Amino acid sequence: MLARVRQIHRPLAGWGAGGSLGAMSAFEPPPLVAAYLRLVRFQHTLFALPFAYVGMLLAAQGWPGFATFGWVSLAMVGARTTAMALNRVIDASVDALNPRTREREIAAGVLRPRAALGVALLGFAAFAVAGWALNPLTFALLPVATLFMIVYPYTKRFTWACHLVLGVTIGAAAAGGWIAVSGAFAPGAWWLWLAVAAWVAGFDVIYALLDLDFDRAHGIRSVPARFGAVAARWTAFAAHVVAWLAFAGAALVTAQGPPGWLGLVLVAILFAFQHRLVATRGPAEALRAFDANLWVGLVVLASVTLDLAWRANG
Questions:
Q1: Which residue, among 314, 175, 312, has the nearest Cα to 250 in the 3D structure?
Q2: What is the per-residue pLDDT across 259-296, written as a single tens digit (0 to 9) for each?
Q3: Domains in the chain: how many in total?
Q4: Of the four listed, 59, 85, 102, 143, which is most buried by Cβ atoms within 10 Å?
Q5: Is 21 within the bounds of a domain?
Q6: Number of neighbouring beta carbons within 10 Å of residue 13
């Protein structure tokens, strides 16, 4: 878990690497290319990217244009690549000790830290160019976003609140999508940021259950390691209650209609499913519960898109 962006790695590790979705494609990239793709878990951008688009669509109250869409997409891919590569480098020594993570590319010696840092620099270059192209505020906030990406991997070494730091870091994607269009903060952006931050913090606590024993043995800080599995489950539940209420706050201030609220009903069902799963079957189901979160962003994006179309044609 200490490559804890454990949060965004392990659950979908099969994508493009022998998993069910990877098997759907006849294309097999060269081994070195495949190693780099596994390093950054490119497909895991799906956790944050839908919310960047949600912020973008709500700020524009519709389609903001292909240029904005393209720059927002580049910024998100660049930021995600930078954060993931840095996490792999910073956490490599701990990854090598954890039986669950010792096969990761740097820990296993497949890629060198220098190569991962090169990937991080390329990602940051894309992030910076996109921020500059969008508007002055997005560019001015680049140092803040970068600081969070660098600091997060170290927080789990000294505070169990690391889950919240990760949530705030990823939640910035939603606010970033809004700012990319408007060039300013607004109540809707703040509500979305809070919602995503609480959602991510909650599912990260659930995922940390997988490494509870390892974290305690090696001094890694997390809510499960500090307070135990039962308290961790309740903490994650409370975080997801806050997340849902914040999503509802965003829906209210952006005047969403029935499609938007239907999406929030589905989100509540996804939250309930994962918490019921872990509560009834124990921490061993944390991975399956975590996987349910992949659908949250997609559901919210789909419902917001349908709501905007419904209002435009109403």
A1: 175
A2: 999 999 999 999 999 999 888 877 777 778 777 888 99
A3: 1
A4: 85
A5: no
A6: 17
Spatial contact of 75 and 131, defined as CB atoms under 8 Å apart: yes
- Is residue 73 situated within a structural domain? yes
Question: How remote is the C-alpha of 234 from its chain's centroid?
Answer: 21
Q: What is the pTM of this model?
A: 0.86
Report which DSSP code applies to 62.
S
Token pair of 24 as six digits = 């759907």
Tell me whether residue 283 is in a domain.
Answer: yes
Check which CATH number belongs to the domain holding 63 and give it.
1.10.357.140
| pLDDT, tens only, 114-151 | 988 998 999 999 999 999 999 999 999 999 999 999 99
Domain residue limits at 141: 5-13+29-312
Helices and strands, number each (H, E), in the chain: 15, 0
The answer to whether residues 66 and 107 touch, using CB atoms and an 8 Å cutoff, is no
Give the separation between CA 255 and CA 258, rounded to whole angstroms: 10
Main-chain dihedrals φ then ψ at residue 183, nearest 5 degrees: 75, 15
Rounded average pLDDT over 284-310: 89
Is the pLDDT at 24 greater than 70? The verdict is: no
Neighbouring C-beta atoms of residue 142, cutoff 10 Å: 17
Distance from first CA to last CA of the chain, Å, rounded? Answer: 48
pLDDT of residue 17 exceeding 60, the answer is no
SS3 category, 208: helix
The tokens describing 55, both together, are 């912020």
CA-CA-CA-CA dihedral for 119, 123, 129, 130, to nearest 10 = 160
Task: Specify the residue for token string 């609220």.
Answer: 261
Query: In whole angstroms, how far apart are CA 16 and each of 104, 107, 118, 291?
Result: 15, 20, 22, 16
What pLDDT, on the 0 to 100 scale, is given for residue 31? Answer: 65
Residue range 181-211, pLDDT digits in tens:
999 999 999 999 999 999 999 999 998 998 9
